[in-house]
Design goal:
The chain is an alpha+beta fold and about 375 residues long. It has four domains: about 35 residues; about 110 residues, Thrombin, subunit H (Beta Barrel), CATH 2.40.10; about 80 residues; about 80 residues, Pdz3 Domain. The chain is about 20% helix and about 35% strand. The protein has four helices and 23 strands. The strands form four sheets. The chain has a seven-stranded antiparallel beta sheet. It is elongated. It starts with 17 loop residues before the first helix and ends with a strand.
Amino acid sequence: MGMIKKQSPHLPEKTCSVRGYHFWQNIRFTVYVAIIALLAGVTGALVVSAWLEPDFYSTQKVLFVNRIAGNNNTTDQISTWSKTPSVLAAKRLEFSTIDIFDKSLQVSKNFYPKEAFVGRVAMLSSSGWGVIYNPEFTQARLTNWLALDSQGLEYKIENTIFDSERGMLYVKFVGDNFRVMSFPNWNNFTNGTKVWVSDYNVWKERQLGDTIVVAKNPYIITEQYSRLHLEPETTPGDIVMTEDGQFVGFVDKDGMLQTAWFADFQLPSLLEKGMFIKNNIDWGGYFVERHGTSDVVGVPGSGFLVVNPGKVVSDLKKGDIISAINGSKVDPHNLWKTVLTNTGDFNLTVWRNGTEIDLKIKK
């Protein structure tokens, strides 16, 4: 009877090699790492989604309610966001604006009827400057104003500058690190341009329609001559944005676009001095066009007819027709921008008594 060879108790079974043992150990470790990576990826995706997708992760703390006529009860209907032009536009509108409410109309904490919504301030600087369309503004109104961001945080108003000509109020909030709106290329807006309009809770696709002359003759050369109509009409005070969420301006009380170009232009002065850039050009007149032909060489086809040379010291006289500024032909729709942006000395081409002359304007 032969002897039976026994396996040592401290060794694995002979059917399991050392190489195979380490192979399966590595496989287990790899699977473990893969699971951890997958979970981390899912978590990251949820975080990013919460940041980008407003429809699924509401951070809105201030809600509208509808009040039943004749009593102070409220219905169950609460306003919500509708479809947006883009995720980026939705987030910019939510986080780069501050809402103004009339706190005297508050229903209960953080609940307001629709008529309590004064408007939305588009933030222009991280230091707290923003702008809102509010043509009926008076300092007395500030007493009842409550400023809240999308998280329900309240901000105090430190300073205001009212642009009565455009109906736009510049507001300085106490605080810093505000998220801000970006401005578009202003040359991209003309008849037929598609824009998006938003009131508190509804996005509307709109188109820029006819160019409407808004100047009343005689008008000051730095006044806006015309504006674009929004089609179809929408609510005054609504914010107008591009598809990508750039701040275009507001809907004015006449249903036209009040662009934020002036805000863009004034922003450096607001940040540096807390005031507007002062422009002393006050020439009054009409935009005129020549009809028919002329045998005189150099007769302008159009220009700005001066009826009041204003108070600026210059050689400009009543009856002069300004045909060009710094060599560029006068365009009535952009004339006000051209004059405002020339903050230094500039040259005028003027038609006077049948002769073309050049004048240098010192500012």
